[in-house]
């Protein structure tokens, strides 16, 4: 019998629920336990998703010797301490994006992974979606020529405003950049693989001062990237990778189900992912496969990728802080 990778969920919130819902499509793996600060919530989550164990508090989950890997779905500001604790307990870690809230935290967490010989990956699930991987392959094959522009945005209204609501709560690293802007920033890095020479940002802020609407321009020597994110309005949430010879359109790129390749006005190729899930199982399967193969890290979301995304978000924050 092949080895089964046993997962533990450190959180019983909404994102953990989506992750668990898709897990039935993951092979050679099982969710063994879930933990929440409130034991009743953990037990209800376990019943809903058919999970064997439920823990009140996180320490029992980390101490469970049967668990191979921990999925962390807590608020952004807690990712660093929870991922660090899991690594120091000898667990592999899949940590929700953004993995940390600063580049410095990201670097320190990666040092902990090296010190403990632990597996650490940021849960950038968009990178694993087949339409995004297909678009990347089209670019690498030269089908659109040299990239001239990238356009990507991600925004949903978060009304009414409440400073205690997680997405607005400054103490939990609230604001649209880390909550939603991480998606277009990560997409730009996936296709560009370099830092921009110049960044310009137009920012709007919620009543408590956290950013709630951003328009971002990355200027490269031969390309321009325009990104947007917002709590104020529903954005298109598409991505366009535009080259000298054609362009790629990815509707709802963050949860992409299709991608189209155009030359001028003609669609010349089209990929559709007919999955029955939301798509979280792709990243879970990739981590499972890495652990079964004894790999030290991910080749899809590598340490340098997570650090680059953190670095670019810090550059964006600096740009709109200077603007203020």
Automatic annotation (TrEMBL):
Residues 132-248 form the GFO/IDH/MocA-like oxidoreductase domain. Pfam families: GFO_IDH_MocA, GFO_IDH_MocA_C3. It comes from the Bacteria. Keywords: Oxidoreductase. Coiled coil: none annotated. Residues 5-120 form the Gfo/Idh/MocA-like oxidoreductase N-terminal domain. One of its GO terms (molecular function) is oxidoreductase activity. Belongs to the Gfo/Idh/MocA family. PANTHER family: OXIDOREDUCTASES (PTHR22604), TRANS-1,2-DIHYDROBENZENE-1,2-DIOL DEHYDROGENASE (PTHR22604:SF105). This is Gfo/Idh/MocA family oxidoreductase.
